[in-house]
Amino acid sequence: MTATVGTSTLESPTVVRKPVRPSRNVVRALTRSRSGTIGFVLVGLIVLVSLLGPLFTPDTLPTDTSSVYLPPSASHWLGTDSSGRDVLIQVINGGRTVIVVGFAAAILSTLIAIVFGSLAAYLGGVVDSVVTAATDIVLTVPQIALLAVLSSLYHLDNSLLLASLIGILSWPTLLRAVRAQVLSLREREYVEAAQLLDLGTARILSVEILPNMASFIVMNFMIGMTNAIYALVGLYFLGLAPLAGHNWGIMLNEAWTRGAIFDSDSVFYILSPVIAISLLQLGLVLMTRSLEELLNPRLRQD
Amino acid sequence: MASEPLLSLESVSQVFTSRRGEIPAVRDVSLDLAAGTVLCLVGESGSGKTTTARIAAGLNRPTGGTVRFAGRDVWGGDRTAFREFRRSVQYVHQDPYASLNPIRTVFATLAGPMRRHRLVANRDEAWQKASELLERVDLTPPENFLTKYPHQLSGGQRQRVAVARALTLGPKLIIADESTSMLDVSIRISLLAMLSRLSTDLGVAFLFITHDLALAKYFGRDGDIAVMYLGRVVEYGPTREVIGTPRHPYTRALLAAIPEPDPELNARKRSAGSLLRSMDTPSLLRLPTGCTFHPRCPSWVEGECDVSVPRLEALDADARHEVACPPVLRQEADAAVPALSEQDGTG
């Protein structure tokens, strides 16, 4: 291999151009799809308000029995609840738990699904059998019922505990999808070439196979996050998690259990957590479009 | 040519099991490939040439026989021997659109193996090495190609990148499986010329798989050729001899199938008695008895060819030209030493 081609001596001051990292194109790719941009703005705003909002609003709201179920007004933009507390402040304060738990649960379930799904598909044999069997078992567990049982045994007041529970119960669908994708991708000739170059299982999976399903994974992560958010809100709505503090699920629960739905002045109160959840979910779904543009080199191209 | 073979297949077989039964894709194939030489494997589709190539590359574990690389049994359980074999033997696939990872740049594709095996210390060195490799496969100037993604390259360019990738670890043997069949003719010739140059410049041995005898004749002119039919090697020897004086009826038929620009020559070739009795290739699931070629063979001997399985035998003691066809071997022997044939009888 020492006999290298001598053409480099012809043009001695060759400018070795380094590969341009695609960071410059990231913003362009992200803003190419209009619906994707809307999604980013929506999620960005909600996350910003939810994370920073609590800094500017009081931690505990005073109960005021003289101003129960007030319609929207200048002092209470979205009205008040059954204890006379301001709804807008609750909406602002109530996003953080939902977003954090949804994100953490989705990360956990996606990680489990990717790691075990890809290993099962790539290695096959006993690993595949064990993982597939475990997946089928977890898939048959009724989520809400199990959470109901768990909530009677444990105090589910910790966000991370909730996130772990939701995450641990929601990986099977994604795992099956990941496994199917890897089963197909591992037969590609470039994977075979990588095997011949002795790149090692970890590297082949992480460098050759998984990046090819990046947009698929991201999309499923987003779906996982929306599902986790629904699961969390459902837990609060059904009263399976302690109703401490403020979040959109607790707001729905209180509106339901304390009779706000029978009060026509409380339309905005009831709708505000619903709309907040819907906007967040919509934003997440729209965001996937931009992320797809970003992760597909064919679309990223100038 | 007397050196120890780099790669040798010793009566390897590969039987695939399907729902419809066992498929003997490759049976009892023995091939030797010395360092720096070229061996062409020709045959029609279904002849087992790709399976043989995959066995040679270590992609398939043969169900019978032994694969030796530099004298060591690669499936014998010796892990270091296998890794050495794995890195020394590289494969260039047929389809340049499927063999490159679509989301990796040319640089990433080439740098990955070099960095993984610590052949380069850092990114700059990898860049330098990758440039050299691209120059070697005639992709110049390399800077124009290193940052490209596969979809930004043409088929010929992709195939060159695939060859460059195969060269990253300094292989001793490159297996080219119909590597040029999907390219335009003009590009095909320049790619073949480039591969030939690699063989002479770097001393890389080639196992060249093709269905096109003309390509084999060009690329393997100084090497050997093995003609496969339904999983068996039917004729094996130096390319010049096999192409120049084909002995096996199947090889003759293959050569006769190459169209000639001159219609008169075409007609003469047709009438040379190499027309097949049947145009259908038998199914691997229901192979004919005896010589698997006998239902199509224009010169078969009833009672012999449909009964006994022919073995590869040398035409004469000091020739490396082997044929698996007893009638042809008898003819040759008769022609060479008429006196001996009477003693031998018809064995």
Description:
The complex is a heterodimer of chains A (302) and B (347). Chain A is mostly helical. Chain A folds into 2 domains: 33-92 and 246-302, no CATH class; 95-245, no CATH class. Helix content of chain A is 68%, strand content 0%. Chain A has helices at 23-32, 34-56, 87-93, 95-123, 125-140, 143-153, 159-169, 172-185, 189-196, 201-209, 214-237, 248-257, 267-295, 297-300. The longest helix of chain A has 29 residues, at 95-123. Chain A starts with 22 loop residues before the first helix and ends with a helix. The model of chain A is unreliable at 1-17 (pLDDT under 50). With 347 residues, chain B is an alpha/beta fold. Chain B folds into 2 domains: 7-239, P-loop containing nucleotide triphosphate hydrolases (Rossmann fold, 3-Layer(aba) Sandwich); 246-344, no CATH class. Chain B has 13 helices and 12 strands. Chain B has helices at residues 49-57, 79-88, 106-116, 123-136, 143-146, 155-167, 185-202, 213-219, 239-244, 249-256, 263-270, 326-336, 338-344; strands spanning 7-18, 21-33, 38-42, 64-69, 72-73, 89-92, 173-177, 205-210, 224-229, 232-238, 313-314, 322-323. In chain B, strands 6-7-8-3-9-10-12-11 form an 8-stranded mixed sheet, with helices on both faces. In chain B, a hairpin with a 2-residue loop joins strand 4 (64-69) and strand 5. The radius of gyration of chain B is 22 Å and the shape is globular. The chains are: A mainly alpha (302), B alpha/beta (347). The A-B interface holds A 1, 3-5, 7-8, 15-20, 188-190, 192-200, 203, 207-208, 211-212, 214, 296-298, 301 and B 57-59, 83, 86-87, 89-91, 93, 95, 98-105, 107, 112-113, 116-117, 123-124, 127-128, 131-132, 135-136, 140, 143, 146-147, 149, 151-152, 162, 165-166, 168-170, 201-202.
